[in-house]
Amino acid sequence: MYNLLNDLSIVEVSSFVASPTAGLYCAQLGAEVIRVDHKAGGLDYNRYMLTREGRSLSWENLNRAKKSVALDLQSGEGRELLVELAAKVGQCITNLPEQSFLSHAAMQAKRADMISLRVMGWHDGRQAMDFTVNAAAGYPLMCGPEEWDPATAPPVNQVLPAWDFITGAYGAFAMLAALRHRDRTGEGSEVRLPLGDVAIGTMANAGLLAEVLYRGGDRERLGNAIWGAFGRDFRARDGVRFMVAALTAKQWSGLVKAFGVEDGIAALEAEVGVRFADGDTPRFRHRAALFALFQSAADGMDYAALEARMTAQGCTFERYRTAYEAANDPVLVAGNPLFGPAPANPSGFAYPATRSFVNVPGREAGDPAPAPYLGEHSEQVLAEKLGLSSGAIGKLVDAGTVALSDKDKT
After folding, report:
1. How far apart are CA 6 and CA 44, in angstroms?
2. Catalytic residue numbers?
3. Of 50, 146, 199, 288, which sits 20 to 30 A from 61 (CA to CA)?
4. Cis ω for the linkage preceding 310 (within 30 of 0)
């Protein structure tokens, strides 16, 4: 990670994906992120899938480079400690409800310039998660084979929780914006970030909201084709499937040469009265005929030959991989400087882990930091941030208000 934010501390009280992602991105750029959980673990502590030792790989990777404090958040004393800690640090990321003990008002009462980022479901307070807001935004009903009957076709969910990760990234950005505002004015901020608004707002930013209102109806299903441009999956003679995209003139001309379909393109242009080099519109409108032409060419070549030809022409393409194949791909992972060793994982399982997604020339990224054990930093944080003595912390531990590392859990 880069130490661009090494003067920033953030308390995070999170679960699942979006809120922990906001803290993770700050931690990967050097911030001290102190994740506080209930002493038995938060709602996502045992999230599937688990190793044989009972460690969640999801939790482990969303909490890299963070510190962990474990408190009895069902007790008044534990909750008071958390509010005091958040106020002392001055910044908090959470997805707890606003009407909870960790309200912005409770933290602001102890620190006037408090900054809180609260990830919510919907703007009106209703609960939501990635798959439900995706259903509301309409995307699953645009997916699937184009020959499906719109009246009876089922929705097609995607397995990537895209809105969660976009919300997490926007949350990290919003936190830094609030910090910059406080640096300039001295004012704190309460920032609420609804997951549902990220989904419907992204739909609007992408132009889809305006599009369906303008056309007075829904977009048709396109199978694996790219909307509004030339792109689709194809299958080589040896059965290998791959995806191509041609959005620019260079990409289009390279693809035509790589597939060797110059004559077929010229004949089709003469037949339909367009020039496909003129842009996305003619290529998209006549996509069915173009797809057939390109697939016919792919039927006559093995993927290795096609890959070499597309590479030589600078085409934009990728072979379809399973997730397991991707994890073992030397270009995507083993030889990618994004990844580094992570041998000290709480799971005991060593595997590549990510550094920061950004590259900062002239700065050393360092190796990825491991996730903490639950409660690993309870004593350190309470001493450093709240000034509690070892004796005072010991009494809190004995009372069950504070828990220490669960490294030896079974």
Report:
1. 27
2. 164
3. 199
4. no
